[in-house]
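Practice problem 4.
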């Protein structure tokens, strides 16, 4: 495998990871307890697309959730919110009727997208008004679902569905903020995001399996290595990774600190990629004086 062939999963908002069956008895979880003067919480690393095979989640995770009075997620993606989210995505992620993707990307990228969609059984004509970032996320989603991964079994969606009616649901970012982040890419960055996601899709399965194995056994070192390797190999992707991961780590850490309360324990679910490394949320919370322990 060439160095170039390692990038796809990491740049797709680190949004697609799944597979696996039984957790080893001595494994940790992608779950941390957080304690400080301001309040306490559990922070759970999420896999946004997963398989039904993983549920129910281990008892330690379910018991931690049962202790909490509020649930904080990156964005509320519960079923009743998705219709509005889809409309917002179309508004931000599509060009006007008199414009086209073809006017904003190179011939090489257009042809690559055309071939990929054809492979997925789609005609690019149906996607001709999609902005590059929107098309990239759509292709990633289709590719993941083709492998059997399902957003309905994503960890964040799972907790939103099982949350008791009286549990407060809070957002760290919100769907609009996430979409505006992608929509704020420069044209060059947006095209690069599309190109790399398509180019790397052929190698997705192995990368996804490795990431899920690291998540399921709580192996934070393996997860960090998998997530950052492509950036080390391809410095031209650094600005993308910084926007998609590091900048959001900073803002979500601040939001978590705002939400911590002595009155009730908080259960936070955030993409696993945002928790690891020196610039991850876990490290940032420790740097702010909180006692953070992996469970």
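Answer key:
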């Amino acid at each position: 495998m060439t160095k170039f062939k390692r990038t796809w999963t990491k740049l797709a908002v680190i949004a697609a990871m799944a597979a696996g069956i039984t957790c080893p008895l001595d494994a940790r979880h992608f779950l941390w307890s957080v304690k400080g003067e301001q309040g306490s919480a559990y922070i759970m690393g999420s896999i946004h697309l997963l398989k039904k095979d993983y549920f129910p989640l281990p008892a330690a995770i379910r018991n931690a959730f049962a202790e909490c009075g509020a649930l904080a997620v990156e964005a509320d993606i519960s079923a009743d919110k998705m219709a509005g989210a889809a409309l917002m995505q179309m508004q931000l992620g599509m060009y006007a009727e008199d414009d086209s993707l073809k006017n904003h990307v190179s011939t090489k990228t257009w042809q690559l997208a055309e071939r990929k969609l054809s492979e997925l059984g789609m005609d690019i004509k149906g996607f001709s008004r999609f902005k590059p970032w929107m098309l990239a996320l759509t292709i990633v989603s289709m590719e993941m679902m083709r492998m059997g991964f399902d957003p309905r079994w994503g960890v964040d969606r799972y907790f939103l569905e099982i949350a008791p009616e009286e549990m407060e649901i809070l957002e760290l970012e919100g769907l609009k903020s996430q979409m505006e982040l992608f929509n704020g890419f420069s044209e060059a960055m947006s095209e690069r995001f599309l190109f790399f996601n398509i180019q790397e899709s052929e190698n997705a399965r192995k990368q996804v399996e490795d990431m899920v194995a690291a998540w399921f056994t709580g192996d934070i070192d393996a997860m960090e290595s998998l997530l950052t390797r492509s950036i080390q190999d391809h410095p031209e992707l650094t600005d993308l990774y910084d926007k998609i991961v590091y900048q959001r780590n900073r803002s979500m850490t601040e939001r978590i600190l705002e939400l911590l309360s002595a009155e009730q324990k908080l259960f936070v679910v955030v993409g696993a990629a945002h928790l690891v490394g020196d610039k991850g949320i876990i490290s940032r919370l420790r740097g702010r004086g909180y006692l953070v322990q992996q469970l």
